[in-house]
Structures are given as structure tokens and as C-alpha cells.
Amino acid sequence: MKTIATIAALFIAITSYAQEGLKEGYKMLGGSFSFNVSESDDDYLDYFMVDNENRYTSFGFSPYYGRFYADNQLIGLRFGVLTSTSANQYVRYLDSTEQIERRNSTDRNSTNLSLGVFWRYYLPMNDKIGFLVEPALSGYWERNEYHYLLEHYHVLSYEQNDVNEYEANSTGYGVLLSLNAGFYFFPLPQLSLEVLLGNFVSDFAFGKSTNKVLDDLELEDERNYSSFNINFKAVNSFRFDELIRLNYYF
Question: Which of 5, 13, 83, 163 lies deepest, with the highest CB count within 10 Å?
Fold first, then answer.
């Protein structure tokens, strides 16, 4: 009985304690930011000499604002922007010469804008650290663009023989329901860092996609699409901008 009473007293103390910045009436301004650039250039000799170049760039920004309507309990509004571009160029040469046998390039561009609400509950362990739970609901708009070009050359004359160009675009909307869990740390009285440990995500999306063969404009296909996904992420599968967040309390 003494053990049960001790555990119950500890739980009550944890859930009733609040750091100064987590008390009723305080406001919070926070968010996350990421920027990533990567490039690679691989040359190798198979039956043909091959040059394979890749480039990827992404930018993400997700600010949010919240207000504590009770100690350790906050409700807020979040906005998000995520853009990415990638490009690949594959060139195949005849033997070790400079004569091109085949060249193809792929370009992708993606933009995602989101707006949503969240509720956050804090479980302080002491005056600096604790755990948090955060259910959130957001709607988003996204656009994806894909372009593919293939050039094939005559083996004997090295003149351009075949060109195939393909384009695919999609625009859609979606609803995202998530449950995040993690811990937080106050290095300063009005500043905290949050580290997410995992989340559960349910995503429903719908929209329209268009596919075109650019060297034959009559070959165009337009269709509607919809999807539903459920996913669980552990900490080792997060992007940096999802993993760490910075908050200011006032």
C-alpha cells in the first residue's frame, strides 16, 4: 500500500507542477526550420562508360503560436511550408570515348502548404525537463511536377535519333491527423527545446493529375486520385525539422 501511495503522490506532484512558462495565461511562439542541399556525381565503367549526376534541395519552415488556457495545457495554430527540387542526369558513352549513346534527365519539384490546430499537454519532471503529448489536425495543399527527357543516338553516325519527353503534374488537397510524443528542456526560463521521439500519422489526400507526352500532344491523360495512409514514425526516421523544435514563452 505504501508503494502505491508513493507512486500516486509522485504522479499528482508531476501533473500538478508547472514551469513558469507553462502556466495559465502564458503565450508561446515557436517552430522549426530546415534547409538541405546534396549533390553526387558517379562515374563508372560497365559495358558502357556512365556518368550519373544527382542534385537535391529542400527547404522547410513551420512556425506556430499557442496560448496556455490552463497550467501545462496549450492550444495553438500552426502553418507550414515545405518545398523540394531534385534533378538527375544519366549519360552513357560508347566504350571510353566522348561519343554519347544515350542521355536521359529527370526533374522533380514539390510544394506543400499546410495550416492546422494542435493541443499540447506537458508533464514536467522538474524545473527544466519533462515530457509532452501533442495531437494535431491540419489541412494542406500540394503540387508535384515531374519532367523526363530521353535522347538516344545512332550507334554509327552519333546523330540524335529518338527523343522522348514526358511530363506529369498533380495538384491536391489533404487532411492530416497526427499524435506526437517527445520531451522538452528549458536551457533558459523563457526558452525551450523539444525533441520528438515518435508520432502516429493518418493522412487522407485527393486531387487531380495530368500526364503528357510532349512530343505527341494528343497523348494526354487527366484523372482524379485519392489516397489514405496510416504511418508510425520512430525517432530514427524523422527529418531534422520534424525532430527538434524551438519555443519562446512570454
Answer: 83
